[in-house]
Amino acid sequence: MNHYLYDGTPEGLVSAIASILDSGDDPEQTVLAVQQNTLFEEGMLLRTDSALAEALFERLRLRAPDAVQTLWYFTMAETTELETSLLRYIALAFEHGDRVNGYLTHASVKAVVATARKAGRELHRMKGLLRFEQLRDGTWLARMEPDCNVIQPLARHFSRRLRAQEWFIYDAGRHSAAHWDGHALSFGTLEQFSRPELSAEEEAVQQLWQTFFKTIAIPERKNPRLQKSNMPAKYWKYLTEKQGE
Amino acid sequence: MGGRGALHSLPLFRLSSYIRCMELQEKITILSGAARYDASCASSGSNREGSAGGTGNTSQGGICHSWADDGRCISLLKILLSNDCRYDCAYCVNRSSNPVPRASFTAREVVDLTMEFYRRNYIEGLFLSSAVNVSPDHTMEAMVRVAEILRNEECFGGYIHLKIIPGSSPELVRRAGLVADRISVNIELPSSESLHRLAPQKKKEAILAPMKLIGAEAGVSLVERRKSRNAPRFAPAGQSTQMIIGASPETDLQILRLSQGLYRKMNLKRVYYSAFVPVNSDNRLPVLAAPPLLREHRLYQADWLLRFYGFSPEEILSDDAPNLDESFDPKTAWALRHPEFFPVEVNRASYATLLRVPGIGVVSAKRIIAARRFAPVTHEGMKKIGVVMKRAKYFITCSGRPFDKLDQQPARLRQSLLIGDGSEPKVPRQLVLPGMG
Ligand code: SF4
């Protein structure tokens, strides 16, 4: 086994993978991990080289566009400890092209694809579960705490959908925010956050929605377990219809 | 405008009095309560890009925005324009002879609710239905108006599903198709005799004529749009229908043949089945201990086989056994009747053959085919790629190797399937009452 280390940044990861692939080592016989600086750590530290990372992306985009997509979702999941799987996955993507995502009997492919799928699922879920509230100044704010870092594609989705209103999306766990001003998207961080005052109408509309939510369920078919499995309780905190539960 | 698009007037509160809001609360309670039994909440099948200054687009796969206390997905503001019905269909809670509270929305109210809910991302759009108020055309016109205001005045690009009131004029059906993503005419009951008996004011022709018209218009629009991207779209997410199961004596075979005909000849996207729930006492209706939910569930499974698995109604049922098996899903029941077809070798079988294996669905079949390009799939591999083996294991081999000792004795196999399954997994059943309108 060959052992390599990288600095723990996403860019460092991709550039480390690039240099291993260039080195000619067999990925199936290579292990990659974050440098911990412990005394007995094994392995050679690979320097982060953004040009190298960039070039790898470009080559992969040509060879296996679906794999780039998978890679992108994989990053959103912010998983650590799957670096070795990712290395082997990318090597296989260069070998087989987009068919690689079907190679689920390979443990590394399976791990990477499953992780990417998890992020994809949460992104899709948040497209439905995000709730905007109207603020006193007429702008809109949606708060969330997703497991995966989905704010970028999520904001892009809403920039096409709610383009006639000015809004913010705030990821309270990561203190990151997206802003749509009616024309363009921007991203940033918010170190301090306090929820601004709501518009005069906001509460009344929320009540109408709560009423609809209650009456649309068929009373004889109450099924809280099914509800929870479709819409896990961790998302309820910001759901208008689940306030006070 | 400087990005302050948010400073839309808020027409809902033009008369912003608390009383008005109370009144709306009450209307929502009555009119969504009356709409909740409609099976369909799908918001898929359309990809409308919103206009530059407008609000909303649609997403090809559909999006669920919440899950109600019964566990069903909420995607659309599903609501009746009115529950004040002139008709007296035996099975319906809103029939004119029932003493239930009545309410009607104004067009503006529905438009404002839709927009306010959409801006907060509560919904994908609107699903509007109605009881027959005054006359079919009068009701249909009011419903179409709502959709037209949404599209033309509010520049709304989200999803709209309109129910067609049987007996509405072709002109109104056309207008509906031009603004809605999906339109649907409920077929209500599986035969014209039953329709005549239980919904005497609805005529078979009044249901089939708009269906045919919708199919034809949608076809024309497709051809036109191939010539020019600017040609108008007609109900791009297609049409669906719904029928009540168990209020009348038709067999499952009759029902599946009807569905097959609707898919093939009328080009329907979806047929919904709703288990009959007695809400009225009426001597024309059967007395049931409980709504036939299992039967409804089996019909959905069989319908799935028609649409995605290449089965014909006659493969699923026969004149000697015209009703679906209660203990087995229709695919397993078919497999048990056809031992000569099995075991299927997963490393060689075609896609269509894999789909015939109980427990292997569209996703699993595709994954097997993708994975075996790299190396033969083993039993372990089947699990790794996510195939649920509970039922499949009795019907397959991996490179010639069966899972357990394959038990070819039909009686024993039936037994293992029943025990092995812990009977059926508890399915979230859709309980659906007779549709409105
Ligand atoms: S099914 Fe429709 S037309 Fe018949 S009574 Fe009910 S609401 Fe009226």
SSE topology sketch:
The complex is a heterodimer of chains A (245) and B (437).
Chain A: E1 2-6, H1 10-23, E2 30-34, E3 44-45, H2 50-63, H3 65-76, H4 83-96, H5 107-129, E4 132-134, E5 140-144, H6 151-161, E6 167-171, E7 176-180, E8 185-189, H7 202-216, H8 224-230
Parallel strand pairs in A: 1-2, 1-3, 5-6
Antiparallel strand pairs in A: 4-5, 6-7, 7-8
Chain B: H1 18-33, E1 66-67, E2 73-74, E3 76-80, H2 107-119, E4 125-129, H3 136-153, E5 159-163, H4 170-179, E6 182-184, H5 192-198, H6 204-227, E7 239-245, H7 252-265, E8 270-275, H8 293-308, H9 313-316, H10 330-337, E9 344-345, H11 351-354, H12 362-372, H13 379-384, H14 389-392, E10 396-398, E11 401-402, H15 410-420
Helix pairs in contact in B: 2-3, 3-4, 4-6, 7-8
Iron/sulfur cluster binds next to loops of chain B.
Anisotropy-based shape of chain A: elongated
Query: What is the CATH superfamily of the largest domain in chain B?
Result: Aldolase class I
Helix vs. strand class of chain A: alpha/beta
Please give the largest β-sheet of chain A: 5 strands, mixed
Please give the count of helices of chain B: 15
* Low-pLDDT sequence parts of chain B: 1-15, 421-437
Tally of strands of chain B: 11
Could you tell me how far the N terminus lies from the C terminus of chain A, measured between alpha carbons in angstroms? Answer: 53 Å
- The assigned structural class of chain B equals alpha/beta
Kindly state the mean pLDDT of chain B as a whole number?
A: 86
Strand content of chain A: 5-15%
- State the CATH class of the largest domain in chain B: Alpha Beta
- The CA-CA distance between the termini of chain B, in Å, is 42 Å
Largest interface: A-B, 65 and 72 residues
